[in-house]
């Protein structure tokens, strides 16, 4: 038999256990009448919102069994980070208790403690968190404009706050205050038409939880690429304006004509890739430097080896992953590009004449936003690659870009035998551009796009007396597609009447714009004229 332990040693161990049980947080003696455990009824009871008056609902249990409810009078207090205790009334019984009228105005970590008032007592506590409410909105408020603002209310941990009443204080901008209630996902909507500049505060439980500035209804940003001397330099300027270090992919195109690249803007949107340009035979050092500055790993060359030489591709392949998208002609290249784009959302495809570069560019940013491909055709005959691409894309709707002078009724009728066809065309490139804009702005399924970029319309070889045609519009369309905007092409010194009337009637939708390219593309006087027309 083992040696018996001395009685005084056993008593000593028991005394230590009693002392430990008495001091451990949330632990009580093993007595059925003691308070032993505290649980919050829901997450909203353990996490409060700064300034909001709440009722904390809790469950109290006896120590021996988590299923045995505690009944009896208790005291509740909340301790802040500095050790200050604030006592609250508490009511209830049979395990269910409520602490009403709890308002804490400072976010942080607190402790809720509940102590039994009778018997062997017992004290339990749980951490309590107080977080700020945060309102976020996606748009500013434009002065003298009927604004509809959408926002979301969440706590500072990102959890949506549902069915909460917030106050929109427009009193400092010529408006009034209004109360709105968040929906089941924390979202909210309100309307406001400010007549003065200033800030609109969003208030919740006496705290400002968001601020919306009132800004001019139209802002014209600084010109992009104003000192660019050629297409390569402008492509670098635009890439630096719209893309940042860490961009994974770039599109590489020739700098002396746009026929191979005119359908590539939707591809730019999908790949989140700027279009950079180079001489066809030798890689321009400025282009290579920008590819490296962006940190790109993937390069998509658009066009065959006549457009961008095999030597350029081979030199890049030593450092980057290079993919060439090319066909025998521009029609075939556009068809190859379409395989990367698809038409799943609308089953719509845009078709332009392979030589009508302005028509394709006018629609390109919109096509990119809708994820629709741009295909090319001859005036009187649909290329086999275009017909195959239409079939492969499962297209049901075709939009012809341009009048019958660029896409004949013969081609239109051939397409009508299989597809729903509409034509958007005018008497010249600028009128066709206006018709394209009007149809896309009037589409109730898509909101007008912004910002608007003004740039040169001299995009064809026969538009310039010497040197390369300007790639300004194509390069800018990629930037516009990235930013959800669109491109308007202009002559150098005058605003076409068709575009003038479109801007005049739709200026309420155009909140910001900028000019892209040097002054030989869009003059300083024309830039000022556009600003005066759209300012309000």
Q: Give me the number of helical elements.
A: 14
Q: For the report, how would you describe the main beta sheet?
A: 5 strands, mixed
Q: Percent helix among the residues?
A: 25-40%
- Class from helix and strand fractions: alpha/beta
Low-confidence stretches: 1-32
Taken as a percent bin, the fraction of beta residues is: 25-35%
Characterization of the model:
The strands form seven sheets. The protein has a five-stranded mixed β-sheet with strand order 2-9-8-4-5. It folds into three domains: 27-131, Immunoglobulins (Immunoglobulin-like, Sandwich), CATH 2.60.40.10; 133-215, Immunoglobulin-like (Sandwich), CATH 2.60.40; 219-534, no CATH class. The termini are far apart. The chain has 14 helices and 29 strands. Helix content is 27%, strand content 30%. The radius of gyration is 34 Å and the shape is elongated. With 536 residues, it is of the alpha/beta class.
Give a quick precis of the structure.
The chain is an alpha/beta fold and 536 residues long. It is 27% helix and 30% strand. It folds into three domains: 27-131, Immunoglobulins (Immunoglobulin-like, Sandwich); 133-215, Immunoglobulin-like (Sandwich); 219-534, no CATH class.
């Amino acid at each position: 038999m083992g040696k018996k332990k001395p009685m005084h040693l056993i008593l000593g161990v028991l005394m230590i256990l009693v002392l430990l049980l008495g001091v451990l947080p949330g632990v009580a003696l093993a007595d059925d009448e003691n308070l032993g455990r505290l649980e919050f009824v829901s997450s909203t009871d353990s996490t409060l919102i700064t300034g909001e008056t709440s009722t904390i609902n809790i469950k109290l249990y006896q120590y021996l069994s988590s299923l045995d409810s505690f009944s009896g009078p208790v005291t509740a207090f909340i301790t802040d980070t500095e050790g200050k205790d604030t006592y609250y009334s508490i009511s209830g019984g049979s395990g269910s208790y409520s602490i009403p009228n709890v308002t804490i105005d400072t976010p942080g970590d607190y402790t809720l403690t509940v102590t039994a008032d009778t018997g062997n007592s017992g004290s339990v506590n749980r951490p309590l968190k107080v977080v700020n409410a945060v309102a976020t909105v996606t748009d500013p408020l434009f002065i003298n404009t009927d604004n509809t603002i959408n926002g979301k209310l969440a706590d500072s941990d990102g959890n949506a706050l549902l069915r909460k009443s917030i106050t929109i204080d427009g009193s400092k901008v010529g408006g009034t205050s209004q109360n709105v209630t968040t929906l089941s996902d924390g979202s909210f909507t309100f309307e406001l038409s400010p007549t003065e500049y200033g800030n609109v505060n969003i208030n919740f439980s006496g705290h400002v939880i968001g601020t919306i500035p009132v800004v001019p209804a139209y802002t014209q940003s600084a010109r992009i690429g104003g000192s660019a001397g050629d297409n390569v330099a402008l492509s670098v300027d635009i890439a630096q304006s719209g893309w940042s270090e860490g961009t994974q992919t770039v599109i590489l195109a020739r700098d002396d004509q746009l026929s191979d690249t005119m359908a590539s803007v939707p591809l730019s949107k999908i790949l989140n890739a700027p279009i950079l340009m180079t001489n066809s035979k030798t890689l321009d050092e400025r282009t290579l430097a920008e590819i490296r500055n962006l940190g790109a790993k993937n390069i998509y060359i658009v066009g065959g080896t006549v457009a961008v030489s095999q030597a350029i591709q081979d030199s890049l392949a030593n450092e980057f992953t290079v993919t060439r998208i090319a066909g025998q002609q521009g029609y075939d290249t556009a068809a190859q590009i379409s395989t990367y784009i698809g038409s799943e959302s609308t089953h719509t495809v845009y078709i332009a004449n392979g030589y009508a570069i302005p028509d394709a560019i006018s629609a390109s940013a919109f096509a990119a936003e809708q994820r629709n491909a741009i295909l090319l055709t001859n005036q009187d005959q649909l290329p086999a690659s275009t017909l195959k691409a239409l079939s492969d894309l499962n297209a049901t709707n075709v939009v012809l870009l341009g009048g019958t002078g660029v896409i004949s009724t013969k081609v239109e009728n051939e397409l009508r035998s299989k597809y729903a066809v509409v034509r958007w065309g005018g008497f010249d490139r600028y009128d066709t551009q206006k018709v394209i804009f009007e149809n896309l702005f009037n589409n109730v399924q898509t909101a007008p796009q912004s910002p608007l970029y003004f740039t040169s319309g001299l995009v064809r070889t026969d538009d310039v007396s010497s040197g390369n045609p300007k790639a300004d519009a194509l390069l800018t369309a990629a930037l516009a597609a990235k930013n959800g905007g669109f491109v308007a092409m202009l002559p150098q010194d005058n605003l076409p009447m068709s575009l003038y009337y479109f801007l005049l009637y739709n200026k309420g939708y155009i909140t910001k714009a900028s000019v892209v390219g040097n002054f030989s593309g869009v003059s300083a006087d024309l830039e000022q004229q556009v600003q005066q027309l759209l300012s309000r």
